[in-house]
Amino acid sequence: MDAVSYSLGGELVTTQVVAKMEETMQAFAVRAACFVGELDVPYSEEFDGRDFGATHLLAYVGKEPVGTLRLRWFRTFGMPERLAVVQRFRGYNLGRLLLEHCYRLAESRGCNVLYSRAAPTYVKYLEKQGWRYLEPAAAAGLGGRTAALVRSVDLAKPWPELDAIDALTLSREFKPERPGLAAAHGSLVDPPALPSRGWDAAGTPGVVV
User: Fold this and answer.
1) How far from 46 is each of 30, 39, 164, 189, 204, CA to CA, in Å?
2) In terms of C-beta density within 10 A (0-12 exposed, 13-18 middle, 19 or more buried), how is residue 187 classed?
3) Is the pLDDT of residue 84 over 60?
4) Torsion of Cα atoms, 37 then 38 then 44 then 47, to 10°
5) 57 near 102, Cβ under 8 Å?
6) What domains sit in the chain, N to C, each tagged with a CATH number?
7) What letters, b where the CB count within 10 A reaches 16 and e where it falls short, cover 74-85?
8) pLDDT digits 0-9 by tens, 124-174
9) Contacts of 54 (CB under 8 A, 6+ apart)
């Protein structure tokens, strides 16, 4: 399921599902550059043992891997996370293209809802893409911590139900132990207060998890 989106500097921009070990290493290299290199996320936190049970997407400009997203599958939903775009290619909607590919892939697998986590300050951006808070009452008091979000894979269809047991399990698993950068790791969007590491002037996410 490859997708040619547009050209950038004369090079085709494409997204694809990782299918080879070489492509897996490319996805890991992008994440290492963004999270370990730029944001000082510990290696053991970034590469957490869940990678080889997940689906990975890559974004390319020509033949250069420039973005990636990890997607894990559960009983009733998929969970996109570890979304990252290398610094010099931010501001070109590559993160959004990866998410759109994620939505199509989930739908092709019969998955109708996605679950992830993000800091409450990003709700406006995510709402524009069809995401909703799963914990609206608690979100306001989370501060810099992350909150659960859900999104229907097909926004034109009736809103699906998220299995309450699965949601509770994931909320407990991904509950951050401390506020700040480490707490945001594992969520969809990184702090926009860091222009070189977060959103650009157009509101596009640069590094997202």
Assistant:
1) 12, 11, 27, 15, 22
2) buried
3) yes
4) -90
5) yes
6) 3-184 (3.40.630.30)
7) eebbbbbbbbbb
8) 777 788 888 776 544 444 444 677 788 999 988 877 666 666 666 665 655
9) 70, 71, 72, 73
